[in-house]
Structures are given as structure tokens and as C-alpha cells.
Amino acid sequence: ESEDYLVEFVDSSLFNPTNCVWNFGLFNGAVEDLAVKLNWLGNGNCDVAYFQVERSADGLQFDPLAQVAAKPASQLPTLYDYEDKTPFYGKNYYRIRTVIEDGSEVFSTVFETDFEVDFESIFVYPNPATDEVILHVFPFNGLPAYVFIADAKGQIVFKNNYDVLDNEAIKFLLADYAPGVYTIYLKADGRREQVRRFSVVDH
């Protein structure tokens, strides 16, 4: 599921001693595949040094998130994009800071979106377990992932890279697992790490 948002055209231009002009035409985004995908359109003939994507949880205090390289100056509108793979849960506010080669800056308007993902649907069962345990990974289905399991001492007892999580669940056989508490770590394509614990009882 994705949500599309559109922000009004920015009516702010930068005029500097070199007589170049820069403004934002379009700035929008959507929530897709557990990430926020941003797009913006740049208009102007300025030599842009880079773009800085900034993010805020309250719409007031913005922090740098990423730097995006600028394309060569052109009289034609230029499209840019950035994917935030670790958005805040709930409200996210974004803006783009354009840094011109001469040190001048232009800010976009603010794009707001809600990031609502049911991470509670990632769970381990049965728990406690005896012969096998299943990790339900539906929110990450279709993404590459790295999964490893550590025992109570922090020693890794299982690890695997999945090119694609093509099932809604991963099954782990426990015949070689001693009774105790284990932790599963799931890292999917740069998304926030998910951690789940389970117990193994006597087989």
C-alpha cells in the first residue's frame, strides 16, 4: 500500500550575483515497501553543489539525513529522488536544501507523511519451542535480508543472507539448539533492524 502526497509548487527563486535562477517545481513522495520515497523537480540554470535531504519528527527541528549529488545545470527541469529506508514511526517531515556553488541556499516547502507499519506482525512461534521455530516476516516479503540467531552468550548459532524473502515465514530447526534463550536479528535491505527472542526447552 502506498500513499501519495503532493506539495504545491514552490514560489521561491534564488537570484545571486551570477544572475542564475533556481526554484523547486515539484516536491512529493509516497510510502512504499517500508520506506518513504521522495521526488523533487529542480528548475534553473544555477550550478548546484549538492542537495541535502533533511528530516524532522515534529516539523520544526530538521536534521540532515542524506546528501544527493546535483546534475549539470540545465534550462530544463531536472528530476531527483531519494529513498528513506529508516523513517520514523508515525509522522515524518521532509525538506530539501539546495546548496549553490557560490554558497547560496534555497529550501523547498515541507513534505509531510505518515509511516504506519504493523511491525507486531513480525513474530516468532511457537514460543517456547522444542523442535522448530517459525519467524513470520510478512512486512519484509520480497526484500533481500540478513538473518542471524545468537544464544544467550552472544554467540551466533545461525546466519544466512536471503536474496529475497519470498515466503511469509522462515522455519528454523532446533535439533542442535541447547535449551535456553535465543535472539533472532532480521536486517532487511537497510530497513530498521528487527529483534525477536524465543526460548528452547528440552527436546
Strand content: over 45%
What is the N-to-C order of secondary-structure elements (H for helix, E for strand)? Answer: EEEEEEEEEEEEEEEEE
Low-pLDDT stretches are 7-17
Structural class: mainly beta
- The number of helical runs is 0
Give the helix proportion (percent range).
under 10%
Shape: elongated
Mean pLDDT: 86
- Spatial gap, N to C terminus: 41 Å
Q: How is the main sheet built?
A: 5 strands, antiparallel
Count of individual beta strands: 17
User: What is Rg?
Assistant: 23 Å
Characterize this entry briefly.
This protein is an all-beta fold. It is built from no helices and 17 strands.
Description:
The protein is mainly beta and 203 residues long. It contains no helices and 17 strands. The strands form four sheets. Strands 1, 2, 3, 4 and 7 form a five-stranded antiparallel sheet that branches. Strands 5, 6, 8, 9 and 10 form a five-stranded antiparallel sheet that branches. The model is unreliable at 7-17 (pLDDT under 50).
Descriptive terms for the model:
203 residues, mainly beta, 17 strands, elongated
Reconstruct the topology from this structure.
Elements: E1 4-7, E2 14-15, E3 21-32, E4 35-44, E5 48-56, E6 63-69, E7 78-84, E8 90-100, E9 105-107, E10 111-115, E11 123-125, E12 132-136, E13 145-150, E14 156-162, E15 169-173, E16 180-188, E17 194-200
Antiparallel strand pairs: 1-3, 2-3, 3-4, 4-7, 5-6, 5-8, 8-9, 8-10, 11-12, 12-15, 13-14, 13-16, 16-17
